[in-house]
Amino acid sequence: MYGLWKPRALGAWRVPAAGPVILAINHAHNIDGPMVQAAAPRPVHFLVKKEAFVGPLGPFLERIGQVKVDRHSTDRNAIANTLAVLEHGGVLGIFPEGTRGEGDFAALRAGLAYFAVRSGAPIVPVAVLGSSDRRGRLVKALPPLRSRVDVVFGEAFEAQEGARSSDEGGGGRRAGGTGRRTRAALDEATVRIQERLTAHLKNARRLTGR
Question: Region 144-165: what's the mean pLDDT?
Fold first, then answer.
């Protein structure tokens, strides 16, 4: 990453130094995942489509702790392995939009809320901002070579921050760090998460001038 582009990490100190944490990252370029791995202060485990685990790349991805996932079905193995990363105090990287797009957090899937609520891990929003100038691009989905790419880490927050739990008569999350996992609770958490991620992206663009 540092050889082909010019990454600049801003606010990396906001990532908790220990314990489980989820990095929620916008997704506009094919290099977003590797760029965050290069800029993050701790090793990051990503959900990676199973099609990438072919040839010599497969063992490499497994050795660096990436989680294989079947995107076309409910992959219970991937869910269990992802939760295990957080249970062991690791850092999970998620693109909550699901696939590469505009990278504006406009449409979030429920997976991020599920993992955050189930594990109780805090979420750190991350904005990866590359050049919007299409000149000099060898590949459409990549920023121009040697261009600056900003990786902006935001303030950590809880998925169910301020939410009341009917299981405890309004006492917050259950013991063990997990909260309500009803569909309504996950929907509420997703809305709350989207608001925080969108606000962070706006601040990141203002900070970097992107």
Answer: 82
